[in-house]
Amino acid sequence: MKPGTPLTLTVHRRGTMLGLRMGETLLYHGAVPRAGGALAGIAADRGWTVTAATIQRLEPVSFADNFMRAKEEPGEWAIHSGDWRLASVWDEDPRGDAQRFTNAIFAQNPFAWTGRAKPGANKYALCTTGDATWEDYTVSAAVCPRDAASVGLAVNLAAPGHGLLVRWSSAADRGAGGNALGLYALRDGRLSLLKSVPGGCIPGQWARLAVVSSLGEVRVLVDGQERLALRNLTPWRGGAGLFAAGDGAVTFDDVTVYGRALNTDLLYEEQQVGVNQRMKNDRTASSEWTLRSDWRAAGNGEFIHRQEFFGDHRLSLVVTPTAGTGRLWLALNTDGAQTTTGYRAVIEPNETGNARYAILHGEKELAATTGLTLPPDERYNVRFWRERGALRLEIDGQTLVQAKLGAPAAGLRPAYHAEGCYSRIDDPIVLGRNVLDYTFAEAPVDWIADGAWAPSIRWACAPQWSFFGGWSRGDAVLWHKQRFTGDQTFQAYLAPKMEYPRETHIYLEQHYRDMNVTICGDGVDPRVGYTAVCGAPDAAGRPTRRAVLLRNGVEIGARENVFTGWPYTNAGHQAWYEVELRKRGATIEVWVEGTPVIRYTDPEPLEGGVPAVWTTNNGIMLARARLLFANPPASRAMPQVMLDDPWYPEWFDIGTTYSLDFPNRCATSGAPVTLRVETRQAPEGAAAPTARDGRLTFTPTAPGDFWYQVNAVAGEQHSPSFHFFAPVFTPEVGRDDRHTLLLYRFDEGSGSVVHDRGAAKPAANLAIPANGNTAWLPGRGLSYHGGPALRAAAGEKLATIAFDRKCTLELWLSTESLYPPPMHVWTGNILSWEGAANQPNFALAHHSYTLFHTPRGHRLAMEDARNFLIGPHFRTNLHHWVLTWDGTTTCCYRDGQLIATRAAAWNEADWDLAAPLLLGNTTTGAHGYLGTFYLVAIHDRPLPPEHVERHYRAGPAAR
Questions:
Q1: What's the DSSP call for residue 509?
Q2: Counting runs of H as helices and runs of E as strands, what totals does the chain give?
Q3: Nearest-CA neighbor of 899 among 948, 956, 841?
Q4: DSSP, residue by residue, 859-907
Q5: 318, β-bridge pairs
Q6: Which of 759, 760, 785 is nearest to 773 (CA)?
Q7: pTM assigned to the model
């Protein structure tokens, strides 16, 4: 300090911590007990002059962002490097993202924030929020890295390039800093390692990363468990940031920056109340998101909760009093029959303008006080707490009366009673330390997925709605990250998913099965433990007829027809199905729709394990999952193994070798990882894939349907499964394309032209519109997602059909959705020969699951009965479609088999012979198809049935 030079000294008090700062330099911090007074003062010795003094109460930092943006914008984040964008549920939907921002009200968790580093050495993506005055806070974020990306959080950013950074590198990163969690100093944009511990983040898996910054130290937590800590770090205050580096993107959600003094319990309560309001009340566009109420009316103003709550918990509600007298009490630990059992907090006004506030155990009064009554027509938040051996009643955060817990109560059921002036009750909710209530309005950080799990569309016919869902060719399992022992309840609201990639079902009704809940599982096989299977076959093999209870895969109880209207009704199409498992000692109960349907007492009860929600070879949606448990859960704390999910073709050809690479396979233990392949379905004697050095090689030797399950294995642990399945065709069988007027193979792989390889000349190439929504697939195939049609000047060649009155339309298609936009139209034009709007010479289109052929003069609509309706046979995924016409009869084949015939005129005398050929849409652009074209051929004669069957066996790639 130089005499005569002004300086600023600042004293910080945070609880028992005291700090002294000179300018921005922290001179001292440490634990100093607080004195009894509440005043502050300044004393200056000789030689010191105090020119100004201020005292300022520092409010705790309070910042939260769940990225529910009204449009594509960064919100309160300043972007300093890398690419950042708002990710949407609808980004990967084949209908496009037209619903992206207009329908957020219909979604559980529609948006997240994604960052990616730009290519180059030592590059990273960074966005920041806050300012240099933020201090003593915890920054927390749900994070999900992809591929080999690293994820991080920055704290104490005095400037964007100056602060502290936690970098969590990928378990798949085999570099020097890979598979580790490190704390770095960030100076002038450069990173310097301070401390690291082994164990990287898991590609594709959500986790909660948190950094606690205080005057004394910085602590780093993953999923609530402390992983590293350092003391005496600078800078010690400043803003916060999100960080991504390496090869891949990182998704962030549910970011919070909360000061130490904030009551996060009440913040969580407010959020849960809001989500519960939506779940109880949303019913829009004929698509229902209404869950069964938690409360059962017992008469006389009494309401009893349907669930049993263990340990410390609280009942919160909002009351709006009216004038007059009445009574309100909140009860915990009742017996489920009467609200007067258990512990009660009672509010009862009297005629003097005062009210009595009391806590009772049964009829015994434990504590009471008298105070002013609640004025009418105002909202009051009333909470009754059981916490740390005490009971307390509070109104709007102020404690009015409290008492020691005393003797045990009669039961585990919360309840409330409201009468007279207290009858107007809103938002009753119960929260507690032994309750985990997942409404999936936040990222699923407490869960581990097997199969594909993500926010997605439940109803393909109503894509504005989205929920959390999973699907797989094998088991789609959502495992909890913790183990639960003793008495417990696992409740889930489930529903089928209409469409999902590469599904194998033919009819929607087949999705109404295998909505399963497991407790006491092993975290590996969902059939281990106690499992409730809803939608199991009956004794005659008829599907979706029963609820079944399994113990380690063995049936120990069953009940038929547990869901009204199953296997399928329109009402069921909109409903959510409540499935619940309860374990009380040795007794296991299955509850469906709030009613016990199976009860079993186990002579050798399983003590505990991992809960799961799952289905098999199906798609399932999850609106809510709630766990209530008697004993604190324990982390599974076991090494994890992960595997990539590579793209592969929709079919294979005999004699061609295919390779799939898994570069990001990894184990958190750092142990070597190998690939294991299991044959699930294959023709007898067919050669299986081989696995070596992270590469799967497959050379088919026989036609048929193939299905292989692939896992990464490290010691005793293995990864979630990758399912590799597709049909195999025999190109050597060959095709007869000698009489093709037009032939498009879609094997160019790039460019704006699809070449005509037909036998007739000259070639009529298809032009891909520059403003279209198309993309070339690897190898072969052109995906089309609406927009302007592909167009060819093919009228001269197609005129032959009008003169000869015969032809064949042949297509290899992979349809992505049966419900193309716009809403409630759902008609996609696959192929049409048309010039003027709505005047096709002929068209082949689909309306949902009905394929139809439209001759000249008919409307492009399934409702036009004059059209040749071929349904309900149209399906998603890869199929071979053939339509033949001999001048009198039209025949339709699917996958080599005749499925429909009809005698109908094509009205060729009225054709516009100069019209162009269109693929994917009509002239008006109102009927966009959603799918992939692999082959389109128009022959000048009807193919005989044996040729149709041969073309199917040969596959899309045959010549």
A1: G
A2: 4, 73
A3: 948
A4: -SSTT-TTSEEETT---SEEEEEEEEE-SSEEEEEETTEEEEEEE----
A5: 381, 426
A6: 785
A7: 0.93
